[in-house]
Amino acid sequence: xxxxxxxxxxxxxxxxxxxxxxxxxxxxxxxxxxxxxxxxxxxxxxxxxxxxxxxxxxxxxxxxxxxxxxxxxxxxxxxxxxxxxxxxxxxxxxxxxxxxxxxxxxxxxxxxxxxxxxxxxxxxxxxxxxxxxxxxxxxxxxxxxxxxxxx
Length: 151
Prior knowledge:
Elements: E1 6-9, H1 15-25, H2 31-43, E2 47-53, E3 59-68, E4 80-88, H3 97-111, E5 117-119, H4 126-134
Parallel strand pairs: 4-5
Antiparallel strand pairs: 1-2, 2-3, 3-4
Helix pairs in contact: 1-2
């Protein structure tokens, strides 16, 4: 099955399946907000979206990488590549798809002048944290964000 997965640059016709998968990854986002963020990403040269498709040409995963010129925690220099999101449908996991996404993303980031890739996840997301460590990331720091309304 692994060799039958194709990895393709995002095309406009991939938007509906991308949004459907992104809603599974980022379930806390409102759909219109997520749609807006994805549309901005698909229109920018600072992002690379890769879609994995099965032999039936059905989308089974995606990855989004970006080039960041703002501060990335722990990065040695700028620009820094960034793994914005990665998702593989449950029935297609453990086939090496996520690893291939990482390889393709690293290659693109190197081509854009990056020597490191950052990423983030929620402190409580043990599955994501384990995945990041498995594919070669290290934990840079743990942060809790605060907010206060002012009157």
